Amino acid sequence: MKLTLRIWRQHHRTAKGEMVDYHLDDVSEHMSFLEMLDVLNEKLLAEGKDAIAFDHDCREGICGACSLVINGKPHGGFPNTTTCQVHMRHFNDGDVVTVEPWRANAFPVLKDLVVDRTAFDRVMHSGGFVSVNTGGTPDANAIPIAKNEADIAMDAAACIGCGACVAACKNASAMLFVSAKIGQFRHLPQGKVEQLDRAKRLVAQMDAEGFGACTNTYDCEGACPKSISATFIAEMNRDFLKGNLCEP
Amino acid sequence: MRWLTNLATSSIGAKVLMALTGVVLVAFVVGHMIGNLQVFAGREVLNHYAELLQSNRGVLWAIRLFLLGSFATHVFMSSRLTLQNQAARPVPYVNQVPIKSTFTSRNMWVTGFVVLAFLTFHLLHFTVRVTHPEYQQLVEHVGPETRPDVYTMVVMGFREPVVAITYVVAMLLLGLHLSHAISSAFQTMGLNTSKYRPITEKVGPVTAVIVVIGNVTMPLAILAGKVPLPPGAF
Ligand code: HEM
Ligand code: FES
After folding, report:
1. Burial code of A200-236, b = ≥16 C-beta within 10 A, e = fewer?
2. Residue of B11, B192, B197 lying closest to A207 (CB–CB)
């Protein structure tokens, strides 16, 4: 199939970017979206032009590195699908496909489609872990955990930290990400100890990074390739309030 | 007290303040509607109700100040958050397609602002009565006493088509605001769970429909001439 790709090009962090049109003539429907971009880049390099920078790593939907807004939706908006899992059979001959980076103040563009997502790392450093002093390895099944609680924790832990929630939100809010990271611990006994304190710390760092606030539009939930539920945000709000109001 | 400023300046704390003040306003909107629907019960009933509300100046002003404070907090926090949220995405998308958001959920500040403009007009119209100073003179005689004739004021007010239509349009926009707002408040205050979400999601739209229907029937019925003016009133 023939495609027109309208892609955001930006030389560096502070440069002014713009959408540039590229034409590809024989795109196979069996290619993945990223393979299609690889083909385009080979063509650009052969022409002596600058290749398009985009993030990717595992290419199997588990690492969270790929991050493109395709036709106005993060990861293209296909259910439970990361950009690397999008295949060209979803597109038609003659389509114009727009490709943009995640857009958020807290995710500055480094080059073209690559953004700096270390804000997420700093949120995690602020308390997204369970503090355990060293000691003997605990017995695996020493602490019984109810199945439904373990399931909820696993649902939250499915978050791969790609940032599609931030990209989709009209406020560039990171609440779905942060609430998933709080959620994966708050349902497990090991994580409960620091539950309220963790919520306070992560939210403070999230605000400091310049993400927007939640207006409950739920575009984040719709964009999440791992179907993280926005009810984790309600749990985070509850912990944050409790932590501020009920703790000394 | 640092926790208090931390709370109020945090993104979640600001939203919770909006939700709490919003719930106060919702309670007022619903109560105000139920009270006013007594216009259909006639002049006697509505004027008696109005007299009752006015009877204790202390309580009246305490409630007014509480509502005003809530409203001011709501508007202040919403303005601040809206500006912060816009700053969180300085470079807009060339192409952005909504996924789960709706026109309503994306435009709360717009509908809220229309409500603010309408409320200003509404207070000037029926409470301070500067738009129609002649309303001040309307009284009902009860034995040797007189009391303000709210009933006649409302019926005369809504017999003006421009006024009636303005109220109807404003109520539709208030309805949009409430349909997202009330469901949203559960989520913001941390009261949403996956078990109750199917219900909390509907509470907003259902309440909004009730408020809109209740409030628009008054101007529409009066405009259609279904609510009589008392004999001798102008
Ligand atoms: C009768 C008047 C009003 C009522 C009953 C009302 C009610 C509410 C409620 C219950 C919320 C939900 C809070 C939450 O998201 O958790 C809300 C949100 C909001 N309100 Fe109001 N409100 C009123 C007037 C206004 C006015 C005058 C403005 C602005 C000028 C405004 C702007 C907003 C905004 C921006 C939100 C946030 C929406 C969001 O988070 O998506 N509201 N309102
Ligand atoms: S490249 Fe790893 S999830 Fe897409």
Report:
1. bbbbbbbbebbbbbbbbbbbbbbbbbbebbbbbbbbb
2. B11
